[in-house]
Write a structure and sequence with these properties.
five-stranded antiparallel sheet, 29 strands, single chain, 6% helix, 47% strand
Length: 370
């Protein structure tokens, strides 16, 4: 969400002063899953991951203090490449009966996580990072494989993308008190083709969702309703679209696909953040295989790929916003597909925000700006 993205960059980029700064690996790999890690979501204190091994795992940040047993040197210097993983597994659940392909947290609902699975269910979890517990408080049968989740930041809504091309909208009011999510809308977005990613643009006057489909299209829809037709269809990718991210107050949309490219779209006219018809501004090349995950903060786009890398792209600011983003870094270390990337904001006990990447090598890696 935009809330988490802005928190991440405020800590990492120090108000945009990026000259001479680098992003690098933090500690060792976090291990626990025995299958590909498909999804990651995080708050400042904990992260949750879903896997092909059918489990959800709960992680907490390993604080750089002697209370965690890492010694005064670690507390003074921060994480080192030779140190233990910066995430510590504190909980695990096996209640899903198939691949856990999607997880999400809602920016205004504390201590709650959502998961979607190939078993056709959406589940709500009460998270207790102190005790290390995940307690399922609600289960909803969606009726088909769940591939993607997106939480609205201005409304108590959760958007669910299915393998059959459908979007389901759930009211999640009261889920932190045990209320079961209620379906309030549903529509076919991609005509039987999988919906691998959803991105939401919200303002005081406009709410739009973007969906990425196996039909190689990105579509825009009015949020919160049973949409009869898309507001726009963005075409150009030669293969299925697998990832989406919004930037610059929802004026720019990034889409990543199986053609190994990232397209940069101007969508300000759709989201109410600008004027003009949607158009493709740039095509970013560098990855050598499918792009499976994208996230943005104020200054950077991060992309995770089947080529086992995470790439960092510098997003132009101000009047130069529409210029071509430049590749700022290539993050290497995973041994297999990077399926998912997420952000863990800074917290009181650790001033550094973390970029998290989950891979088919069954590990979670963490990265941070120096």
């Amino acid at each position: 969400s935009e809330l988490y993205a802005s928190t991440f960059v405020d800590s990492a980029a120090q108000d945009g002063n990026l000259e001479g700064r680098t992003i690098s690996r933090v500690g060792g790999a976090a291990r626990g899953h025995v299958g590909s890690i498909c999804a990651i979501a995080a708050s400042s204190d904990w992260a949750i991951s879903g896997s092909i091994d059918r489990t959800l795992r709960l992680w907490r940040r390993r604080h750089t203090s002697s209370s965690d047993g890492d010694g005064d040197e670690a507390a003074a210097s921060g994480y080192l490449a030779t140190e233990p993983a910066p995430l510590v597994e504190i909980g695990c659940t096996t209640e899903h009966t198939n691949v856990v392909c999607a997880v999400a947290v809602h920016p205004s609902i504390a201590h709650v996580a959502f998961s979607g699975s190939f078993d056709g269910t959406l589940r709500v979890w009460r998270v207790d990072a102190t005790c290390g517990s995940l307690r399922c408080t609600a289960r909803v049968d969606v009726g088909g494989k769940v591939l993607s989740l997106e939480a609205a930041s201005r409304a108590q809504e959760l958007y669910v993308g299915s393998a059959r091309g459908e979007i389901f909208v759930f009211d999640v009011t009261g889920v932190d008190e045990g209320v079961v999510p209620q379906r309030i809308a549903a529509f076919e977005a991609h005509a039987g083709m999988d919906v691998r990613a959803i991105a939401m643009a919200e303002s005081e006057h406009q709410r739009v969702i973007f969906t990425a489909g196996g039909d190689a299209c990105v579509k825009a829809w009015r949020a919160g309703s049973n949409a009869a037709a898309p507001l726009a269809t963005l075409t150009g990718h030669g293969n299925p679209v697998r990832a989406l991210a919004l930037a610059h107050h929802h004026q720019l949309l990034f889409s990543g696909a199986s053609d190994a490219t990232i397209r940069v779209w101007f969508v300000g006219g759709l989201t109410g953040a600008g004027a003009g018809e949607p158009s493709c501004l740039h095509i970013l090349r560098g990855h050598k295989d499918t792009i499976w995950s994208l996230i943005c903060d104020r200054y950077f786009l991060y992309s995770g790929s089947a080529d086992a890398t995470v790439r960092v792209w510098s997003i132009r600011q101000g009047a130069a916003m529409l210029e071509m983003p430049e590749m700022a870094a290539v993050l290497e270390g995973h041994q297999d597909v990077v399926w998912t990337i997420g952000q863990m904001p800074s917290c009181e006990s650790d001033s550094r925000a973390l970029l998290l990447s989950g891979s088919a090598d069954c590990t979670v890696a963490a990265w941070a700006w120096d």
